[in-house]
Structure prediction request, 70 residues.
Amino acid sequence: GKCQCCGYDKCPSALEVHHVDPTGKTIEFSRIGRDNKLEDYSNEINNTPCILVCANCHREIHDGMILINL
Prediction:
């Protein structure tokens, strides 16, 4: 995987899932392995509009600096 905004792909642990429509969000990806089973995360990705982004772009998306158009 790589960041869908800037193409970053050096460190996989710096990549995060961004929910394009937060109203469909049911689980927190930051809690992988603590609260839910891996299949729960797979279901979330397959049933909710999500994109993979690097940590920097993720922060810029939430600050309104990057707009996501799908």
